[in-house]
Amino acid sequence: MKNCMKFIFVFSLSIFLLGCSIDKEDMKEDPGLDKSQKIEVSSEENPELVLNVIDNQEDVSEFVNTLEVDKWSIVDIPSNSTKGYMYKMYQEDTVKLGEPNTDKKELKQIATIITYKDSPYIEFKTKKLNLNFKVPKDVAEYLSNNDN
């Protein structure tokens, strides 16, 4: 019984330490943004007012490729940073086994990227995740231009 308790403790501790070490690594795993089908651009000051919509699949792919997700680094955003633009990303909801496959294709929001004015920082949000990143300078400049 004692050996079993030791094993459970060591196993739990190793999982905890592994999780902590992964927390500060760069964004190496693809967050699935390449599946996006529509992107709405709005200002953080007025998120209900859509400034631009990217819904042409070529333009959406170009936008996602320009983000250079593999070069993002997890950081803490300075407290004096001011939010800029918000990019809401949408894709079709997955048809689950047993559900009827209808022609009506409803888009669901899968992620939000919030930029920070005059800085290389972004906030990346999904339903289950909220992370802050430092992005390459050219990506920050691209995102600060709402005419994407």
Highlighted features:
seven-stranded antiparallel beta sheet; globular; 7 strands; 148 residues; alpha+beta; single chain
Strands side by side in the biggest sheet: 2-1-4-5-6-7-3
The structural class is alpha+beta
Helical stretch tally:
3
Low-pLDDT stretches: 20-29
Number of strands: 7
- How far apart the termini lie comes to 62 Å
Q: Roughly how many Å is the radius of gyration?
A: 19 Å
Mean pLDDT, rounded to whole units?
Answer: 80
> How much of the sequence is in beta strands?
25-35%
Elements, N to C (H/E): HEEHEEEEEH
Let me know the largest β-sheet: 7 strands, antiparallel
> Helix proportion of residues, in percent?
25-40%
Tell me, what's the shape?
Answer: globular
Q: Can you put this structure into words, describing what you see?
A:
There is one protein chain. By secondary structure, this protein is α+β, with helices and mostly antiparallel strands. 27% of the residues lie in helices and 29% in strands.
